[in-house]
């Protein structure tokens, strides 16, 4: 008899847990949309702030790189690498992007050669 009372007690506690979880979900759904408009404005403001910071950083970087390149009169990727040489994550990412760009150029070149061969055989 004690086993059946334990089972009943366990079943009733699981019903209470389910009811409590449903009540929490309902209250969360009501609260979820409460600040939606405010959060959208905050997010747009945050994006605008990050954009301003990035534009300012890039502008400063280009001006400094241009100052370094004044002797040659031509701005090269090496000038930008020189400017970010102390920031290793940026420098590594720059090298990665430059090598990826070179691979893409070679792939495009190979594709153009194949098109020319196909056009000449027809």
Automatic annotation (TrEMBL):
Record keyword NAD present: no
InterPro entries xrefs: TFIID_TAF13
Native species: Papaver atlanticum
Name of this chain's protein: Transcription initiation factor TFIID subunit 13
UniProt entry tagged with the keyword Nucleus: yes
Compartmental location: Nucleus
GO CC annotation terms, alphabetical: nucleus
GO biological process: transcription by RNA polymerase II
Taxonomic classification: Eukaryota, Viridiplantae, Streptophyta, Embryophyta, Tracheophyta
Keywords recorded for this protein, A-Z: Nucleus, Transcription, Transcription regulation
């Amino acid at each position: 008899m004690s086993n059946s009372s334990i089972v009943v007690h366990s079943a009733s506690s699981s019903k209470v847990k389910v009811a409590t979880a449903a009540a929490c979900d309902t209250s969360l759904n009501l609260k979820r949309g409460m600040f939606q408009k405010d959060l959208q404005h905050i997010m747009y403001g945050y994006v605008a702030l990050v954009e301003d910071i990035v534009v300012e950083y890039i502008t400063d970087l280009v001006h400094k790189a241009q100052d370094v390149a004044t002797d040659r009169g031509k701005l090269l990727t090496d000038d930008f690498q020189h400017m970010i040489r102390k920031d290793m994550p940026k420098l590594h990412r720059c090298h990665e992007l430059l090598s990826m760009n070179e691979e893409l150029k070679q792939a495009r070149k190979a594709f153009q050669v194949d098109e020319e061969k196909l056009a000449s055989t027809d």
